[in-house]
Structures are given as structure tokens and as C-alpha cells.
Design brief:
Elements (H helix, E strand, L loop, with lengths): L1 H7 L2 H16 L9 E6 L4 E4 L15 E4 L16 H10 L5 E4 L3 H9 L8 H4 L14 H5 L2 H12 L9 E4 L3 E6 L2 H24 L7 H9 L20
Antiparallel strand pairs: 1-2, 1-4, 2-3, 4-6, 5-6
Helix pairs in contact: 2-8, 3-7, 4-8
């Protein structure tokens, strides 16, 4: 199926989505086959996503499933996309700045989702990536679970998302777990890694001091030094040495 996929989307996107999915087991963000990442070619209107139930240690480029973003139609191959595909699709349709979506079942983020709590912004590690608490969706109704469950999961995420989705690139689905997103598949899963780390920190912080808080101006300084027109973190023009 590799040739079929290459004719639909670029090889770079295929390899990026494969690598982004492999980050999930490498970083301990899911057990067994749980979790998935997709990446979007917005110009072609196609995203590729992990297939349903394929173990990560067997996953290869040829297993990725291409889906038409406007319709949800699978465009090639005989594998079914992740059961969360419709959630990914709705996020792409609702937010034009997204190029990747990730879903994991990481322990600490899921713990907050199951407890019915947003992940509070308690320190600068959180503020470096999320410009506010990581929100919690409302609980889906019985009717929303019975019909179009995955699409309705996307709808409650959209309700919870900021207008500029990239300022807080993640949310918790109540009773379920985290979804994160970014401009690329790689950034989407990177945000999954960060979300799990800050959820763990928040849980430990609240255990030590349930009233813990830091000032908003500190959070703003940390977010803006990494994001926006005045960002100065890192070396984006750095040239890596050629391999010897």
C-alpha cells in the first residue's frame, strides 16, 4: 500500500505520522495499542492516521490509513482507521491551523479526566506550552454516546477549545482522556508528552499544597518567550553539522 499512499500524500508526511505514533509507546503514553496520531495535508484535504488495533511494534508506513477530511472516506487500503478518526477529522474541520492531532491514555492526564478536573496552571513548566489550564470537556450525554460517539467527542472538544487552539494545544475529554494538537503531527504528540509531564507535576503539587498558585505575570512571561512575535527561546536558525 506504500505506493498508493505516496500517490495521495507526500512521503514526508507519512514518515512524520509514523514516527509521531511511535513516540507514544516510547514515552510510555499508552498501553497495548491504545492511542493514535494523525497528520493532515490540508492542501490535498487528506489526513493519515494509525490503523485500529495494530500493535506499535508492528506499525509501518504501509499500515497508515488515508482519510478524506471533508467526508471521512478511507481512500486506500483495507485497514480500518483508528476508532478515534472522526474526532480527529472534526478538529481539523473546525480549526484551520491544525496539522496534527494526538490521543493517548497517559496515566496522569487520564487521572485528571477521570476525576473530572482540568489540569490547573500551577507553574512555569506548564506555562511554557499551555497558556492557561488544560480544559476539561463536559460529559457526553447518553444520546451522544449512542449515536456518532466519536464525532460527538470531537464536538465537546471543540466546545472546550480556545478560539486560538494553539495557545492551549490540548484538552481532556471527561471520563476518557487527553487529546492534543499542533501545526504538525510531531508537535501534536510533543504536546501529549508535555501534558502528561505537567499533569504529573500538578498532582504532586496539589498533594503537597492544595492551595498552590503562582502569579499570572510569571506565566505570561514564560509563554511569550517561547511563542508569538517576541519569542526568543531556542536557536531556530541553528545549522546542524553534516553527518561524518
Amino acid at each position: 500500500m506504500t505506493a498508493q499512499l505516496s500517490g495521495l500524500v507526500g512521503d514526508d508526511l507519512l514518515h512524520e505520522v509514523l514516527e509521531a505514533n511511535l513516540v507514544i509507546p516510547r514515552e510510555g503514553l499508552a498501553t497495548l495499542t491504545w492511542g493514535n496520531v494523525s497528520g493532515l495535508d490540508r492542501e490535498r484535504g487528506i489526513y493519515v492516521i494509525k490503523p485500529s488495533g495494530v500493535p506499535y511494534d508492528e506499525l509501518a508506513v504501509e499500515h497508515l490509513v488515508p482519510v478524506e477530511v471533508d467526508t471521512g472516506r478511507v481512500l486506500a487500503g483495507d485497514l480500518k482507521p483508528s476508532t478515534d478518526s472522526e474526532t480527529h477529522r472534526l478538529l481539523y474541520l473546525e480549526h484551520s491551523g491544525l496539522g496534527g492531532v494526538a490521543h493517548t491514555h497517559s496515566t496522569y492526564a487520564v487521572s485528571f479526566a477521570q476525576a473530572g478536573r482540568a489540569v490547573p496552571m500551577l507553574g512555569t513548566t506548564h506555562a511554557d506550552t499551555f497558556n492557561g489550564p488544560v480544559p476539561l470537556t463536559r460529559t457526553l450525554t447518553a444520546e451522544e454516546c449512542a449515536i456518532d460517539y466519536e464525532l460527538n467527542t470531537g464536538r465537546v472538544l471543540v466546545e472546550a477549545m480556545h478560539a486560538d487552539a494553539l495557545t492551549v494545544p490540548g484538552a481532556l475529554v471527561a471520563g476518557h482522556g487527553p487529546f492534543t494538537w499542533g501545526t504538525t503531527a510531531a508537535k501534536a504528540v510533543e504536546h501529549s508528552v508535555v501534558l502528561e509531564a505537567v499533569a504529573e507535576m500538578a498532582l504532586h503539587t496539589l498533594a503537597l499544597n492544595p492551595a498552590a498558585a503562582s502569579p499570572d505575570h510569571l506565566f505570561e512571561r514564560h509563554f511569550t518567550r517561547k511563542h508569538g512575535p517576541d519569542a526568543y527561546y531556542g536557536n531556530p536558525d541553528r545549522v546542524l553539522p553534516a553527518p561524518s
